[in-house]
Amino acid sequence: MSVPALHDDRRIVLTLGCPDSVGIVARITGFIAENGGSIVEAGYHADAATGWFFTRQAIRASSVADGVDAFRAKFAGVAAEFGPETDWSVHDSGTPKRVVLLVSKEGHCLHDLLGRAAGGELPATIEAVIGNHTDLQRVVEAHGVRFHHVPFARDPAERGPAFDEVRELVDAHNPDAVVLARFMQVLPAELCEHWTGKAINIHHSFLPSFVGARPYHQAFARGVKLIGATCHYVTAELDAGPILEQDVIRVDHADEVRDFVRQGRDIEKLVLARGLRWHLEDRVLVHGGKTVVFS
Amino acid sequence: MSVPALHDDRRIVLTLGCPDSVGIVARITGFIAENGGSIVEAGYHADAATGWFFTRQAIRASSVADGVDAFRAKFAGVAAEFGPETDWSVHDSGTPKRVVLLVSKEGHCLHDLLGRAAGGELPATIEAVIGNHTDLQRVVEAHGVRFHHVPFARDPAERGPAFDEVRELVDAHNPDAVVLARFMQVLPAELCEHWTGKAINIHHSFLPSFVGARPYHQAFARGVKLIGATCHYVTAELDAGPILEQDVIRVDHADEVRDFVRQGRDIEKLVLARGLRWHLEDRVLVHGGKTVVFS
Amino acid sequence: MSVPALHDDRRIVLTLGCPDSVGIVARITGFIAENGGSIVEAGYHADAATGWFFTRQAIRASSVADGVDAFRAKFAGVAAEFGPETDWSVHDSGTPKRVVLLVSKEGHCLHDLLGRAAGGELPATIEAVIGNHTDLQRVVEAHGVRFHHVPFARDPAERGPAFDEVRELVDAHNPDAVVLARFMQVLPAELCEHWTGKAINIHHSFLPSFVGARPYHQAFARGVKLIGATCHYVTAELDAGPILEQDVIRVDHADEVRDFVRQGRDIEKLVLARGLRWHLEDRVLVHGGKTVVFS
Amino acid sequence: MSVPALHDDRRIVLTLGCPDSVGIVARITGFIAENGGSIVEAGYHADAATGWFFTRQAIRASSVADGVDAFRAKFAGVAAEFGPETDWSVHDSGTPKRVVLLVSKEGHCLHDLLGRAAGGELPATIEAVIGNHTDLQRVVEAHGVRFHHVPFARDPAERGPAFDEVRELVDAHNPDAVVLARFMQVLPAELCEHWTGKAINIHHSFLPSFVGARPYHQAFARGVKLIGATCHYVTAELDAGPILEQDVIRVDHADEVRDFVRQGRDIEKLVLARGLRWHLEDRVLVHGGKTVVFS
């Protein structure tokens, strides 16, 4: 699936997190200027609670004469000055990110992401969709995207081989993001570990409220006046990973659980699409179980 | 395209608007009770500005022993008591509403509505999609929906025959709603008249701000902090029809017009989907250029 | 403190909850019509989960020739037809509701409610403010409202006498609402019981997230992207009472706990003001630990 | 009126706007680092439409050994390098900003701002309130703030002397912000000019919809589904100045104009408070009739 250019300019995107100290910004922006870099967008955050510093710089690619690879190689020397814990990356937006989606039967998040990709709105290519059911196969293929069917055993204890197959299929695409688009299966701890920082889930509640199964039923029972959705990185602890994005929608006494389900879909779609977009544009830095999002 | 039942119950939906007076509610609900009708949902509005009364009653269909046709026939006598201006309808939700979509090249509203239909969420069948370009044909057909291509002349003065063809194609489906899903063509006055109360448009601004062409460019020039979308009935006066629904999304100085376009799509999709849903569920009563929406 | 009339008309407000059956609406609206009642606003809810029916009718007071007392007396006979569990009330909006506020040191909710009362916006009189500190006394008195200072012992085990004094002071005003406007004290179970259905609290989180102490600190630790506030009736179980209203506000990684505190105040003020208004206008019916709000 | 420290740290806040070119950020942050400055918060914006660059830097005051005056004096040399159009400022948050409020009879914005000031939430002192009526005098004085009464002639043509008196009273306080808190008087062009960049108005519509008088009546007539408020700098062209902040609130068919008025107040208060806060914290840079807001 090709990605039409919505933005007409390529960017070199630099992200960095390290212990804070005086002069980091000057050092980094000095380096960028020395390399001719024209900064189009910049985000900074000095975190008082942890003492860390975070930045994201988007640089007009055409302004860096030596190209992204030379830029990255040279920057490694700068990053080293900030200590061994420093976490950094340099990405060329001209090289599209790659996404694999995991789905089950419910198609709303899938339809939404396929529609965004078709409109050139997703800063990535959807490489493949893997489903434990075939309900969504036809539309996936109409969008020119490969669909893999991996059936799952009824007994959760026997799903190991299916997860192994999913892992192999996913990894074959070397994706930048593995999206659980209402996949409805809890990933084994070793898969969470294996895909740390790239597996993204959409949970249909405003976490930490209503962790686990049937959150809309839990919300209905409590009588809340807003329902929500949370996009988070997948970690071994259920629904406890770093939160990328959340939003809510108003409900009232006249709404039954099925109305929560229907209305909640609109928030799930939006929250997942926003979180995924930020992840793909290198806007999200993770530290201490929380995210810095330069949106 | 079939519509799976999200709601397990059929409803008889009664709507009525008439000059207000004491006792109307008692008369109507007395009639419903006499016919065994179990009211599931009810909306009332006494409009102080116009002196009109409006109601919508959703009745469990199975509770009305004589069936919807007999109910409607008997109710005609009741409605007549409220004067000649009375505007009323009785609809059986077991008979799905019918929708025709008009599109151009931009697919976001189309993808959204097709996804909702596929998920059983739209209280209607999408009978056909008519496009003045073929860009969206493939996905429409993958959803099992008929696509008609009607090319439009470059010269607006020569588009009469194309509009005639669109009118004929649309009317052949006898639709309850004709949705301009980013159709990008201004309907001739006689078509607006012909489809009064069923042609629905999505305009990409918070009307009455930014009427007409390129509203996102107008919004950018003014420096607004929110952009919006408006779902309205089409009338001969451009972007001036009764408003079904509106919403907004936050933007800031870092957003360029292309960002407005991208972010605005999410609001356009939601606002159109909500407005269309309310129209199809007989939740919208029009009076004096404004809507009463029993949402 | 006098309450200028924002609304020019007096209303008789009838509320009723009872087991659902066919014909209740017809019976009630028939009764209203027989008494000449002109219905200005009406809300209905048939609750599928509990099988109960709820309604609120606002009737133009001047249209009921016999007056509210006769109306109420006659309606008692109608209500009796719906069974012994029926819960109903008839209130004349010409008789202002009475409110007592409990406060501590933080004044934002208090200032907000005093401002609303001064603007004629609160459908009630503020009879008194009781504080366990004197910080807010001066402004309360500038608004012409009585302030009572009741010091609380440092040791929670020794606060019984103070709570007794608060109870006596509150009850002397025979209030329709006892508002814990950031009172910061957990009411003893017997006071919760004593003020059932009239004690209203504002909790500074989106319940059921972050029950108990320091919810903004809890929210910061979890890294949520929205913070919220919840207005609920006070019950013996902490922060678990029926929810009247909730709302949220967006935060991001740059916000520290003190920013949560500052921004959260705006949501606390709005959520409390809306919930209290609905309570005072008899828009809230409680059943099964949840609320029906005819807003 | 004293301002308790909500934030425990003093900041030196540097703002700058100039034609964009490579190396500006490096130059500025290099200068800050040379002076020992620890950057706590930073915002950048390169504006593609105008070719301008904007930044705001908040520096821990204690990290700049030489103090703010020396820092400012030295920075003047740096700013000069960016060309004669460069617009910059250096402010010490330890020197509180000064605000004068203009009011009429409606008190909701005034009460809100006084409450915020009392809670230590406003990053400024309220130096005085000037009213063309005395309705709000008592509460202003209870907050320890000076109230000036300046009566206005009924005939708009004869209000010149009153405006002269207002000007003199305001200027005597040398304020950083002159807030028209529902002042209801159109400032003469020369006063708009005189207070350019510091006179802030709250307009009760989502501009550019409903410019001028009685915007809620205009909104009601059009049948919009959201009403809004706009905080903007005052310019000679009515309601056309650079927008600081906007927001909206949902209304429906049941809301009359008086309900718009009541509900709109909540949005007016919030939008004014946010816009004013950003202005006082030097977060707003104006260029080409629009604002850059580093919120």
Automatic annotation (TrEMBL), chains A, B, C, D:
GO biological process, one term: 'de novo' IMP biosynthetic process
Record field: catalytic activity: (6R)-10-formyltetrahydrofolate + H2O = (6S)-5,6,7,8-tetrahydrofolate + formate + H(+)
Gene that encodes the chain: purU
Keyword Iron on entry: no
Family indicated by similarity: Belongs to the PurU family.
UniProt entry keywords in alphabetical sequence: Hydrolase, One-carbon metabolism, Purine biosynthesis
Residue span, Formyl transferase N-terminal domain: 97-273
Enzyme class: hydrolase
Protein name listed in UniProt: Formyltetrahydrofolate deformylase
Entries under InterPro entries matching the protein: ACT-like_dom_sf (IPR045865), Formyl-FH4-Hydrolase_C (IPR041729), Formyl_transf_N (IPR002376), Formyl_transf_N_sf (IPR036477), PurU (IPR004810), PurU_ACT (IPR044074)
GO molecular function annotations of the record: formyltetrahydrofolate deformylase activity
Pathway recorded for this protein: Purine metabolism; IMP biosynthesis via de novo pathway; formate from 10-formyl-5,6,7,8-tetrahydrofolate: step 1/1
One Pfam family per UniProt: Formyl_trans_N
Its biological purpose: Catalyzes the hydrolysis of 10-formyltetrahydrofolate (formyl-FH4) to formate and tetrahydrofolate (FH4).
Record PANTHER family: FORMYLTETRAHYDROFOLATE DEFORMYLASE, FORMYLTETRAHYDROFOLATE DEFORMYLASE 2, MITOCHONDRIAL
EC number: 3.5.1.10
Organism (species): Antrihabitans stalagmiti
